[in-house]
From TrEMBL:
Organism of origin: Homalodisca liturata
Source taxonomy: Eukaryota, Metazoa, Ecdysozoa, Arthropoda, Hexapoda
A GO biological process held by the record: mitotic DNA replication checkpoint signaling
Gene3D superfamilies: Phosphorylase Kinase, domain 1 (3.30.200.20), Transferase(Phosphotransferase) domain 1 (1.10.510.10)
Protein name (database record): non-specific serine/threonine protein kinase
PANTHER family per the UniProt record, alphabetical: MAP/MICROTUBULE AFFINITY-REGULATING KINASE, SERINE_THREONINE-PROTEIN KINASE CHK1
């Protein structure tokens, strides 16, 4: 890897779909970069998928989207260089079975909504929004990453229906399993599930299908004594009822979410400063 002569490989940050993600530090100016390492020999299908991901990611420039810096291939190994987010994943900010305070959840939701609104304005759907794909920078600013399942759904003002079943099952909207489906409502559904995770520290169901008891209870309004809903106040439930509406056309738009009282109200900080649990 001659191109890393000016860079030090510090540590492995995690595992991607096709290989590891490593932290690089520039020896001259100290700049930190995340490097995805893709083994094209082990994953021959990766080449096409990664090129599609790059084609979408390089179009994006927003404070709530991880920046794409470039790529290169050497032999059977591909490298993608991305903005490094030292705050880690939103997932690690969620206390299991507890979640986080509502003021924190509101703050992260506003940033997530801003990033998703930007994507949709560009005609792009992410299709895999979940806490593991939401990173935090040194200022605790949320940034969307991993565009492996993203797609262009609107071009030259014309919107197309999508038919690929993709995403992470507990975060997927019910219409994805039926197909075809509109792009924007499936991202809105996913950010609703992210909000549930932030407020309750758990997910509401494994899969939004008729055979799932928890989902059936949600659809039939027989859920208030159940977890995670019993952990939330009525205002949060009111918002989630409108976001997690099984009918895509009746689901709240981003503009309508911004008008909801839970989104606009001032949430007071109850606990003291967060303790380091490491």
């Amino acid at each position: 890897m001659d191109f890393t002569a000016d860079w030090s490989i510090m540590q492995t940050l995690g595992e991607g779909a096709y290989g590891e993600v490593k932290l690089l530090i520039n020896k001259n100016d100290g700049m930190a970069v995340a490097m995805k390492v893709i083994n094209l020999e082990e994953h021959p299908e990766a080449s096409v998928n990664v090129q599609k991901e790059i084609a979408i990611h390089r179009m994006l420039n927003d404070p709530h989207i991880i920046k794409y810096f470039g790529q290169r291939t050497e032999g059977s190994v591909g490298y993608i260089f991305l903005e490094y987010a030292p705050g880690g994943e939103l997932f690690d900010k969620i206390e299991p079975d507890v979640g986080m305070e509502s003021w924190q959840a509101q703050r992260y939701l506003k940033q997530l909504l801003s990033g998703v609104e930007y994507l949709h304005s560009k005609g792009i759907a992410h299709r895999d929004l979940k806490p593991e794909n939401l990173l935090l920078d040194e200022h605790d600013k949320l940034k969307i990453t991993d565009f492996g399942m993203a797609t262009v759904f609107r071009s030259r003002g014309k919107e197309r229906l999508l038919d690929k079943k993709c995403g992470t099952t507990p975060y997927m909207a019910p219409e994805i399993f039926l197909r075809p489906y509109r792009a924007e409502p499936v991202d809105i559904w996913s950010l609703g599930i992210v909000l549930v995770a932030m407020l309750a520290g758990e997910l509401p169901w494994e899969k939004p299908m008729a055979l799932c008891v928890e989902y059936t209870k949600w659809k039939s309004n027989d859920y208030m004594s159940e977890s995670p809903w019993k952990k939330m106040d009525n205002l949060a439930i009111s918002l989630l009822r409108r976001i997690l509406n099984p009918i895509p056309s009746a689901r709240l738009s981003i503009a309508k979410i911004k008008q909801h009282r839970w989104y606009t109200k001032h949430h007071t900080q109850i606990r003291g400063p967060e303790l380091d649990r490491s």
